TrEMBL record:
EC number: 3.5.1.42
Protein name: Nicotinamide-nucleotide amidohydrolase PncC
Coiled-coil region(s): none
MF annotations from Gene Ontology: nicotinamide-nucleotide amidase activity
Gene name of the record: pncC
UniProt KW Metal-binding keyword: no
InterPro entries, alphabetized: CinA-like_C, CinA_C
Keywords, comma-separated and alphabetical: Hydrolase, Membrane, Transmembrane, Transmembrane helix
Domain CinA C-terminal residues, every copy: 6-156
Cytoplasm recorded as keyword: no
Top-level taxon of the source organism: Bacteria
Gene3D superfamilies in alphabetical order: CinA-like
Length: 161
C-alpha cells in the first residue's frame, strides 16, 4: 500500500462516516495534510493541519503543557495526546484528530532515532496514543512512513465507527 492510495481510502472513509478531520503534525512537517490535499473533494472532510515543529508552537497553538515537554520531551505519548486534545479544542467543527511527533534523524538521540508517537482522538472520547519504531533509515523515507502510519491508523479507527 502506498501513501496516495491510502490517502484516497481515508478521504472516502471520512465521507462515508461523515467525519471532519484535523491534524497536528510535528515530524511530518505537513506532509499528511499535503498528501490528503491531492485527493479531490477532501476539503469537505479536512479541517486543516497544525504544523507544530517547535516546542513553542506546540505550547502556544495546541496548549501542550511546558511541564509535559520538560518531563517527557516532545517525542512522547503524553505530548502526542496533548496535541490531539489541543487540535480538537482549537477546531470545534472537527470530529476527529490525529497527531504525530518523533525524531526522524539525522542526529537524533539514539533512544529516539526513528521513533514516532501517534495520537488519535474523537470528540467526546479520550485520545489514544501509540509508539512506533520506523523501518526506513533516512529522514525523507521516515517522513513518508510516518505519514502512512498516521493515515493507516485513521483508516483503522474509522473502520470501527
Amino acid at each position: 500500500m502506498d501513501l496516495d492510495s491510502q490517502s484516497q481510502q481515508l478521504v472516502e472513509l471520512l465521507g462515508e462516516k461523515q467525519q471532519t478531520l484535523v491534524l497536528a503534525e510535528s515530524c511530518t512537517g505537513g506532509l499528511i495534510s499535503a498528501t490528503l490535499a491531492t485527493v479531490p473533494g477532501v476539503s469537505a472532510w479536512l479541517a486543516g493541519s497544525f504544523v507544530v515543529y517547535q516546542e513553542a508552537s506546540k505550547m502556544r497553538w495546541l496548549g501542550v503543557a511546558e511541564d509535559t515537554l520538560l518531563q517527557h520531551t516532545a517525542v512522547s505519548a503524553p505530548v502526542a495526546h496533548q496535541m490531539v486534545a489541543g487540535a480538537l479544542q482549537m477546531t470545534p467543527h472537527a470530529d476527529l484528530a490525529a497527531s504525530v511527533t518523533g525524531h526522524l534523524g539525522p542526529n537524533a538521540p539514539a533512544e529516539f532515532d526513528g521513533r514516532i508517537f501517534v495520537g488519535v482522538g474523537r470528540r467526546g472520547q479520550p485520545p489514544r496514543t501509540w509508539g512506533i519504531e520506523l523501518n526506513a533509515k533516512k529522514r525523507v523515507g521516515r517522513q513518508r512512513e510516518s505519514a502512512l502510519v498516521v493515515i493507516d491508523t485513521l483508516i483503522r479507527v474509522l473502520g470501527t465507527l
